[in-house]
Specification:
The protein is an alpha/beta fold and about 325 residues long. It contains 13 helices and eight strands.
Length: about 325
């Protein structure tokens, strides 16, 4: 029993850490929803950010895994997802209150392919105001539309919820004209997974089929625009003499657009800024912050140890971003 309580406590702390990181990156949906940015809180997907969902709609489907009616409803839910796969709307299933192992087993047993969030501490459930999901409240739906508005929907009628979601949403790159073989690549780029898409995009740009090559060039143009915007933000931070923000912006360009042709200024600015005293101080604090996250993820997160690590971050790296986040947790 003690080990289970420790695991639950550790996961809850990790959720807090991830939420703090997400808040710092403005990863919020609708009026009050903060999706977890910890990869371990997701099944069948990596963390989904606000930037990736800009202009699109999201339906959060909260479900009770112990409910036979919920299990019987999955084919209809997944059918609704398939019917809307060319529309700018995504369904994300959310399980609240169960352990990661229990949710993983449930997803595997029911062969679910949709993204699933493990909401072990019920924080997402509380944010959405759908009530405590249980055998007395087996499923609920929560819609965040393309304009950022949010409202509860009927969890028993997912097709209607997704239809409503699609009405105010739009694609960044319209899928019309994208060959079927390129749809997986298009979805990667559409949802902001630029780096994993780089190799395939390069290959399709060399394809001999005119329609494939044209579609690939259209996707490349979209990525190029995103790179230009990201570089402009980094340059603005440099001009404002905000070395830490500039470093993070160039770092994001380097990571998010790995595999694409980037200007030499990205590497040169990262090297220059890394020698800045303020940046060096921030990086040292961030290193310890990430170590705390890794310890919690490992399941060895005893409350006293986590508290001590937060105190050390605050003491050894005062004034840093990491220290501010550590203070908020304490």
């Amino acid at each position: 029993m003690k080990s289970r309580l420790m695991l639950a406590h550790g996961f809850a702390l990790l959720t807090i850490l991830s939420a703090m990181t997400a808040s710092n990156a403005d990863d919020t949906f609708g009026q009050s929803i903060v999706l977890p940015q910890n990869p371990n809180a997701w099944i069948n997907s990596g963390p989904i950010s606000t930037q990736a969902m800009a202009g699109k709609s999201v339906v959060l489907y909260f479900f009770e895994e112990g409910c036979p009616r919920c299990r019987e409803n999955w084919p209809a839910v997944e059918a609704a997802v398939m019917q809307n796969q060319t529309k700018p709307v995504m369904l994300i299933a959310v399980n609240s209150g169960s352990s990661p192992a229990e949710v993983a087993q449930y997803v595997k047993r029911n062969r679910l392919k949709i993204p699933v969030i493990i909401d072990q501490d019920r924080s997402l459930e509380k944010q959405a105001g759908v009530g405590t999901i249980s055998l007395n409240n087996i499923f609920q739906a929560y819609l965040i539309d393309g304009e950022g508005n949010s409202r509860r929907m009927s969890g028993g009628d997912i097709p209607a919820a997704m239809q409503a979601a699609a009405q105010t949403a739009s694609w960044n790159v319209d899928p019309v004209g994208i060959p079927p073989t390129m749809i997986p690549l298009w979805r990667q780029i559409e949802f902001g997974n630029y780096a994993p898409a780089a190799k395939s995009l390069t290959r399709f740009r060399r394809d001999r089929k005119p329609d494939v090559k044209a579609a690939a060039e259209r996707l490349q143009s979209y990525v190029d625009d995103k790179i230009a915007i990201a570089l402009s933000e980094a340059e603005s931070a440099v001009a404002a003499d905000d070395s830490w923000l500039a470093f993070k912006k160039y770092e994001e360009v380097n990571e998010h657009f790995a595999g694409y042709e980037l200007p030499d200024v990205v590497d040169s600015e990262l090297n220059r800024l890394a020698d800045d005293g303020l940046v060096a101080k921030e990086l040292a604090g961030r290193k310890l912050w990430r170590l705390a996250q890794s310890i919690i993820e490992s399941g060895r997160a005893k409350p006293a140890r986590v508290t001590a690590m937060m105190s050390k971050i605050i003491k050894d790296h005062p004034g840093t971003e990491a220290a501010r986040m550590a203070a908020d947790i304490q």
